[in-house]
Amino acid sequence: MRKTLAALVAVALVATGCGGKRVDPNAGGGAGGASCEAGEGRLTIATGNAGGVYYVVGGGLAQVISNNTKIRATSAETGASVQNVQQLVAGDYDIAFSLADTAADAVAGKDSFAGKPQKIKALSRIYPNYTQVVVRADSGINSIADMRGKRISTGSPKSGTELIANRLIQAAGLDPAKDVQAQRLDLNKTIDGMKDGTLDGLVWSGGLPTAQLTDLTTSMRERVKFLDITPLLEPLKKINPVYDAGSIPAATYKLAKDVPTIVVPNLLLVREDFPTANACAITKLLFDKRADLEKVHPAAKDILREKATATAPVELHPGAKQALT
């Protein structure tokens, strides 16, 4: 069964940002229709780094949409949240995964979106991302403040990971541009750097488990360790209240004990003009076919209907509201 699902996801993970007939904004009920039946067309989902949870769940979602509607959906590898929102608004993608803090910045027009509020809506709140900070045991790093002068992967450029990494570093009293040797690397290159010793540590925001971190902890064992970053939670909450306390269960990566950390919800985003009927149909599929998504990645078990509408300050798309009421 897992081989079959993996094959389906591989088909869905077509790394292309556009092409083919796009979904007509007026198809399947348009912006004001009450239908919940998706129209015909094609759409592309912006996910994240290859192998990351966005990438895997996004591929599964594309397959679910293609199998259950008249829409042919594909998913694309990207740098993740910030890039996803920017290219969603530009029309390169039709649906985008994003961390809630990035999405909040986008609608407010601040930080990476300074002066340009983005016209986006949410289909749903989905599973949370866990901020996973891992360092080499011989690096001398026991807190974010200890990263001064160290070689730290802060994630892909324009990613939600990079946003959180920089905020953590600043909250610890450091300047990300001067005090840390920040390496803007995707996850695969980050893991390679940890293994070959060219990196001292990494920050990663992702679902549990993330395959590359499983690989890292399995191959390096006691030579790497996770940091408890919760002492920095309150400074981050002052920036954005979406940050919350969480815990990485020891069983996730076969650790000696649970690791306290900071969690951030994820949102599934669309443009304001996304067809209402398609928004309704896809939102319903998230929950009606959640079991299919769980088979692709266990993080999908935390896509919960009771939390779906908690997307503020990003407003729910009217079609999503229809699906969730």
From TrEMBL:
It holds the Pfam family NMT1_3. InterPro entries: TRAP_TAXI. It comes from the Bacteria. This is TAXI family TRAP transporter solute-binding subunit. The lineage of its organism: Bacteria, Bacillati, Actinomycetota, Actinomycetes, Pseudonocardiales.
